[in-house]
């Protein structure tokens, strides 16, 4: 049970990091670069 909750915690952590990453990119990356991608 401990192992299961730990892996769940890791998955949640990854999702949180991805969300942070996306919001950080939106704030920091200029609009010009968004057009390129």
UniProtKB/TrEMBL annotation:
This is Uncharacterized protein.
């Amino acid at each position: 049970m401990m192992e299961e909750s730990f892996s769940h915690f890791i998955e949640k952590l990854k999702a949180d990091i991805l969300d942070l990453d996306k919001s950080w990119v939106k704030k920091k990356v200029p609009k010009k670069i968004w057009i390129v991608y």
